[in-house]
Known about the structure:
- The protein is of the alpha/beta class.
- Helices cover 41% and strands 19% of the residues.
- It contains 16 helices and 17 strands.
- The strands form four sheets. A seven-stranded parallel sheet has the order 5-2-1-8-9-10-11, with helices on both faces.
- The relative contact order is 0.11.
Amino acid sequence: xxxxxxxxxxxxxxxxxxxxxxxxxxxxxxxxxxxxxxxxxxxxxxxxxxxxxxxxxxxxxxxxxxxxxxxxxxxxxxxxxxxxxxxxxxxxxxxxxxxxxxxxxxxxxxxxxxxxxxxxxxxxxxxxxxxxxxxxxxxxxxxxxxxxxxxxxxxxxxxxxxxxxxxxxxxxxxxxxxxxxxxxxxxxxxxxxxxxxxxxxxxxxxxxxxxxxxxxxxxxxxxxxxxxxxxxxxxxxxxxxxxxxxxxxxxxxxxxxxxxxxxxxxxxxxxxxxxxxxxxxxxxxxxxxxxxxxxxxxxxxxxxxxxxxxxxxxxxxxxxxxxxxxxxxxxxxxxxxxxxxxxxxxxxxxxxxxxxxxxxxxxxxxxxxxxxxxxxxxxxxxxxxxxxxxxxxxxxxxxxxxxxx
Length: 405
């Protein structure tokens, strides 16, 4: 067995430079020679185009490739991928894309056709086990889903390793993957987590005071908040309804993020209707560098996602960022949210306004439980979801793949 491993990681996620903290954590394992491949740009929340900036450090190599249908995650493929991978001659490729996508088909074809000694791992963030042939409704869906079904049949048998983010997801997917002739190693660890030190390090009081003053928040105020995309499936309206008739003194609620003008207008109209303007206000998205300070400003962070026929919360990264910052969380039971929170916060049945209000009230009233949740949340964020922890789980899985050669 070689002393070092040439590892290629391919994903659109790392177009966004802050997420590369995971790659840097993985690069601390000196027996890994890592090359990261990303497309030229990706589309983040609200359809905003984010261009890939080159990594300028020395921990790993970063290659940006142009492509076709870039930004369309189900359909994009790379130019010059075969030539690039052959020049790198990787021992292992870790593809962090979904298992029914065109790029997964491209990578699996190139790997098995031209790099037969290279092991291929796919990391999926999916947590709904789609039976494509049974789910399609409209003619468009039937055509689209038929292509997904063909792609997964092509891709899955070619994988040497398949990773889902939580053990509970594997329980749902096990039979489906078996029927698709998956014979590789099963892995369980998240794709992304939290830069723990960055969120846990105490923000200077003067900085927090500056933010409070800009938002007209008093030092004694108990501040609830949501930070993320402003879309209906995030359950923001549930949070607003839960504050109807609210009488707790010295409380404020911040809703921070970008969304469509129509939806933001709808939220503001609901706040007006419920006479909550003195408690709730909506702010535009903040810069990534400022997010830790805002989480430390909050006393409670809220994510009340709704499950839809084609989506449920896959992770909820704001939860682990909030917990790392020492801010307890309230989350719905959509998808991965309970798996992320564990016993370190409040978990509410989706759309249960009364239960949401009860959690908001208990967080305000029960000071001893609040202090306990602060400690549990930080411990869970560091031990389970820090990039150091995820890098260790990734490294261990890579070693298992090597031993299976």
